[in-house]
């Protein structure tokens, strides 16, 4: 509504819920500043004319009302305006950190000089990101080398992608279309060519696009492979002789730690468990897990995290869009006719440490 005050050719494209809020702040600040400029310039001009040399305007002491009550009044008003602006901008900035629970999760890895993205159903893209309109999308960012920054001007979205760390942000697109994706942190020779596109689609088109993706082997499946290749399964699987906790279903749970503390299992906790296992030791276990610092890339840690979180999340995406169930969303080599209705929701074999129940003969 406020943005109607700015002529269309001066208005940058705005295509997300966040963009509308950021624009409102911008226009609000513009209005407040304009009002103050008008007031100050107006007074300067008025007084310059009224008290010009030779005019008969009254000069001398100011009335005490002006020098005291007015002074307090405008100091307080300015303070309130500043506090209000701070609250307004800060609340929107803080909101940019916490995505709604049902958001679609997309992993983004910055790399000299490209953006690699991976959606929850294992769709991989380079310098492109397809998302549905009207659905919240949570981005989990990291970098493979130097600091990059993920920037989509039309969404007023900007968040750094840092090596050895995961940052996050979220957006909700409000208009279909193709939008610029830029890196906005100078990251080397080809920084200026680290460009991409965000393609916002109607939910039906998006669902269709998803099913057309050739590669259905997802992050979680890669994680599953790493889990055995890197020896995690040797300790963590059910049949192991080593006394290590089962990782099945731990996502989102709270875990008792040595020393009486507890921790909630999320990305950061799993990352720390893998890289600094001595830091938070699970109560009742010996700190025998080796650190994988330097042995696993960020991408591999994301894959392992996705696997621990259980691979079936990959197929919840369509459900979260509130679409009619699409027939062709199922694991490779599986048809919906054959599988029991609840089987596509949770496949036990995808949970770390769980026996592969599908293989056991009746
Ligand atoms: C030598 C055996 C061993 C290996 C190999 C091992 N772990 Fe562990 N892991 C443990 C033990 C023991 C604990 C519990 C004590 C602790 O927290 O350090 C543990 C704890 C964890 C936790 C926290 C579990 C919880 O319930 O909160 C996670 C997550 C984890 N490991 C993931 C992995 C991953 C991923 C790998 C492979 C990259 C791996 N582990 C390899 C023995 C192992
Ligand atoms: Cu960059």
General description of the model:
One of its GO terms (molecular function) is cytochrome-c oxidase activity. This is cytochrome-c oxidase. It is found in: Membrane. This protein starts with 16 loop residues before the first helix and ends in a 42-residue tail after the last helix. The radius of gyration is 28 Å and the shape is elongated. It is an alpha+beta fold. The protein folds into three domains: 79 residues, no CATH class; 109 residues, Cupredoxins -  blue copper proteins (Immunoglobulin-like, Sandwich); 121 residues, Cytochrome c-like domain (Cytochrome Bc1 Complex, Chain D, domain 2). The strands form three sheets. A five-stranded mixed beta sheet has the order 3-2-1-5-8. A five-stranded mixed beta sheet has the order 4-10-9-6-7. A two-stranded antiparallel ribbon has the order 11-12. It binds heme C and copper (II) ion (CU). The site of copper (II) ion (CU) has 7 residues, from loops.
Topology:
Layout: H1 17-50, H2 64-95, E1 104-111, E2 114-118, E3 124-126, E4 128-132, E5 136-143, E6 148-152, E7 157-161, E8 167-172, E9 177-183, E10 195-201, H3 203-212, H4 219-229, H5 232-236, E11 254-256, E12 262-264, H6 267-275, H7 298-308, H8 316-320
Parallel strand pairs: 1-5, 4-10
Antiparallel strand pairs: 1-2, 2-3, 5-8, 6-7, 6-9, 9-10, 11-12
The chain binds heme C and copper (II) ion.
